Amino acid sequence: MLDQIVTHTSVWPYASYSGNWAAEENAGFTVAWATTWPEVREAQRLRYRVFAGEMGARVPSQRHGLDADEFDAYCDHLLVREPADGAVVGTYRVLTPDQALAAGGLYSDQAFDLSPLDGLRPRMAELGRACVDARFRHGGVVLALWAALTRYMVSRDLEWMMGCCSLPLKDDGGSSAARLWHALSRTHLVEPALRVKPLLPLPIDCYDAVSCVEPPPLLKGYLRLGARVMGPPAWDSDFGCADLPVLMRLDDLPTRYRNRLLTAVSAQT
Asked: What interhelical angle do 255-268 and 139-155 show, nearest 10?
C-alpha cells in the first residue's frame, strides 16, 4: 500500500518544509528533515530495529526489515545522524494539521476518540514513531531531536503537540502499563475537557493501582517537558503494546528546558 501512495519520484511528496531546511549540526550530530524516499527508508529501518527487535512489536512490513505504514507518506521525518559514518541514530515523524487533512486524520484517531481535541487541531502537530539507537540514548541525540522539533513548531506557529507513548506488553502482559496509568492519572492528567477515550481499552482495573512503576525514558522525558496524559492506554494488538495518549503545549515548557531548546534553535538559525 505504501508504495502505491508514494509517487515514482524520489522527492518526498507531502513535505511541509520550505527549501531552507538544510542539514544542521547539534552536539556533533547532523540533524535534517528527510527529502527523499531513501532517507525515509533509513528512518523506517531504525524504527524496525527498535520496535520489532527490542520491543518485540509485530510490525506489518516485517519481512522487509522496515517499520512502515500509510501515514509515513504524509509525514515529515526528522533524522539525526551520527558523526562517524552518517548512520541514522534518531528519528521522529511529524504530522501537521494540513498533512492530517490530506491523510484523512491523525494516526492516533485509529486508537482513540480524539473529539475533545477538535478545537486544538488547527494548531496541533502529531508526533510519532520516536526512537533512538540503543548506542546513542543520551542527552546529545535527544537535545538534537527536540531542538529541531522546537524550531519546527515555532516556524509554523503550532502550539500543541500530541502523540502516543508505546508501552511494551511482552514482559508482564500489561501490568506495568496499567499501574503507570494509575500513577500518572493522579499527577499528570489533563483537565476534563481534553480527556480522550481509547477505542480498544487496555484492561487496567484488574491490576494493582498502588505499587509504583518507573516510566520508560521517552515518557519520562515528555513529563519533564511538561507533557500530560489524556486518558487510559489503548491496546494496540497489531503492534503488541499499550499506547498512552500524551499532550504537550509549547508554552508550558519549563523555563530551564525552554531556554535550553530555544538557545539551540537560535544557534541553528
From this structure: 80
